[in-house]
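Q&A log
Question type: sequence-to-structure
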Amino acid sequence: MDTIASLFAFITTPVSWVIVQFHSMYGAIFGPDTGWAWGLSIVSLVVLIRICLIPLFVKQIKSTRNMAALQPKMKAIQERYKSDKQRQSEEMMKLYKETGTNPLSSCLPILAQSPFFFALYHVLSKIASGEEIGVLNQTLVDSARQAHIFGAPIAAKFTDSPEKVEALNASLTDVRIVTAIMIVLMSASQFFTQRQLMTKNVDLSVKTPYMQQQKMLMYIFPVIFAVMGINFPVGVLIYWLTTNVWTMGQQMYVINQNPTPGSKAQDAYLQRLLKNVTQHGEVRGRRRKNIVKLIVAKGGDRNEQERRFFTGLAKAGFAPQADGTVEKSDTVTAEAEGGTVTKRQQPKRQSKSQRQSGTGAAGGQHKGDEASSEPTSLEKKPKESVEESKPDRPSRANSGNTSRQAKSGQRKGQQRPKHPSSKK
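Response status: OK
Response body:
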């Protein structure tokens, strides 16, 4: 670790200068030789670095989302060119270029912090040995050596020998208890940060190997930090614990305000937005209007959470517009509640015997319709055409009437001759 830290010795002067500036401010409040003055100086160094890295953090979020969305296409390229590694790499680079995705962007914040991390480690190592470094003169080094945080010097390590700890005016028990608690907190914050990303801010509709890799990292990273933490001075543990807490809070803000489409965080955000629109009758805020505008522009490509949001707006009587605003509409409310929708009654299914015999309800009704429509069609025809169509076979109705008239002895009009096959 000391060898790696020496590679970043060129940045120790700026890092030590920033620490001294913050120490002069906090020293006037808590005292120059106190652990609060030196500890808060390290915390302020972290905050300053992370503020400067916010643009890289935004790129990291975008890159992580793009990588998750590209996983199906990347998997298809790997399967298509699995026998040609060179062509596979070319197609991958072409895909990254077309989508504007940089695989290294997800590691940018960590890579950018590495020089400051190792420079601080180098500064604290020199403080532990009582040597001047950067802008830290011997007076400031002696002051930092006397600074204790909960009984542990900021330059002490978990693995230090009892003699080295005694030289820093502390006990080995206090040092190991404080460092152990900080290591646990550092690992727990790293685990919670990664778990928050996986459970709330991942598109649940896309199942890719990338998600499995992130789940593995969720358990591997805390273990790595726990193993490495025993070799970190207390000041470096303060640095790393502070940066983990900052990352966790920064990520929580991004998840709540700009969640990944299709994630649980987006569903929660849209439900909060729906409640806000229902209470105030409008979309308040430029950022919220932009989100509604983007969802409207998707059209039929909306995910389940976005469709549920639009349904909630419709039930509340609001119609989203292309500019991100909403308008009150009674028609949308009626359609959402199903007031204008009429259910179509399906006819009862008939058996084969019913269809053949015509005794079913639908068959009887169909025949009845034919029977009722037949006289109408006959009435429209002239009598001559009816007589010419069937001159020798009277209809059943006429035959029945004739027989009844014969029995009653009443004759009306000219009778038709009987068919030759009929019996007298």
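Response note: The longest strand covers residues 318-320.
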